[in-house]
Design a protein that fits this description.
By secondary structure, the chain is mainly beta. The chain has 3 helices and 19 strands. Strands 3, 4, 5, 6, 7, 8, 10, 11, 12, 13, 16, 17, 18 and 19 form a 14-stranded antiparallel sheet that branches.
Length: 245
C-alpha cells in the first residue's frame, strides 16, 4: 500500500478495479481523479457523471459519483449537486483493488515559483494537468486542474481545479470504521444479492475540493448557508504535475 501512496504522490492516476460478488461475474474499473489523503488513508472518487435514473429517492435530472477508500469496507454514493450521500457495504464486491498508472512529471512547486516556463510548455502542448496541495489541515488534495492561465509577460499564472466535493463525514475515519463494522456484523441478516446499506441522506454537510490560485494566494471554495464562497486556504506545499506522452 505504501507503494500505491508513493505512486499517487508522484502524480500517477488512481483507479479502482471491482469484481462483483453476486450474479453473473464481471469486472469493472473506474478512474478516481479526485483524492483526499491523510496519514496513508484515502478516499478517491470519480467525477459526477453517473446518471441517477433508476436510483430510488433521487431526482433523475441529478448526477452521481462513487467514492472508494483503502481503510474500510464502506462505499459512498455522492450526489454533489444536491448534497446527498448514501453508504453501502463493499461486500457487494468480491474484490476491490486499487492501481496506479500513467506517467507524470512535476513541473512546478511553491519552493520554485519564479519560473513558469514548464507550465507554459505544458499548456501549449495540451497536456493533462493535476495539482497536489498539502493543506495546513494535514490533508493532501489530489485534484485535476481545469484551467491554467500562464501569463506571457511575466512569471505568473492563475489556476482553477475541477469543481468537486465530498460529504464532510468521510473525514471522520472512526465513524466510517464503525459503520463498516456495523455492515459486517449485519451481513448475515441479508439474503444475496441484498447487502447492508443506508438510505439516501439529503442536504448534508459537504466540503469542496475546488481550489483557485490567484498568482499569490490559494483559495478553497466552501459551502456556507447554502452559498458557495471563496475562502483563503492555508497550505504547506503546492505541486503541479503534467502527463508525459
Amino acid at each position: 500500500m505504501n507503494d500505491l501512496i508513493q505512486c499517487m504522490l508522484s502524480g500517477q492516476d488512481l483507479y479502482v478495479v471491482l469484481k462483483n460478488r453476486f450474479g453473473e461475474k464481471y469486472v469493472e474499473s473506474y478512474s478516481l481523479p479526485t483524492v483526499i489523503l491523510h496519514e496513508g488513508r484515502f478516499w478517491g472518487k470519480f467525477s459526477n457523471v453517473h446518471s441517477t435514473v433508476g436510483h430510488f429517492d433521487l431526482e433523475n435530472s441529478r448526477t452521481l459519483s462513487y467514492a472508494y477508500n483503502n481503510f474500510s469496507e464502506v462505499v459512498c454514493t455522492v450526489a454533489l449537486n444536491s448534497f446527498t450521500h448514501r453508504f453501502y457495504s463493499s461486500n457487494v464486491y468480491s474484490s476491490v483493488d486499487f492501481i496506479c498508472k500513467g506517467r507524470y512529471e512535476k513541473i512546478f512547486d511553491n519552493y520554485n515559483r519564479s519560473n513558469v516556463s514548464l507550465l507554459s510548455e505544458a499548456v501549449r502542448s495540451g497536456l493533462r494537468l493535476k495539482v497536489i496541495i498539502k493543506g495546513d489541515d494535514g490533508y493532501r488534495y489530489i485534484v485535476p486542474i481545469h484551467t491554467l492561465e500562464v501569463f506571457l509577460d511575466d512569471d505568473r499564472f492563475n489556476m482553477e481545479t475541477d469543481f468537486d466535493g465530498f460529504p464532510s463525514v468521510l473525514k471522520n475515519y472512526d465513524w466510517v470504521n464503525n459503520l463498516s463494522q456495523d455492515f459486517n456484523d449485519s451481513i448475515g441478516l441479508f439474503k444475496p444479492p441484498s447487502y447492508p446499506g443506508t438510505r439516501y441522506f439529503h442536504k448534508q454537510d459537504f466540503f469542496l475540493t475546488s481550489f483557485l490560485w490567484s498568482g499569490t494566494c490559494m483559495y478553497k471554495r466552501e459551502v456556507k448557508e447554502n452559498k458557495i464562497i471563496d475562502e483563503l486556504f492555508e497550505y504547506e506545499t503546492i505541486e503541479i504535475f503534467a502527463e508525459v506522452l
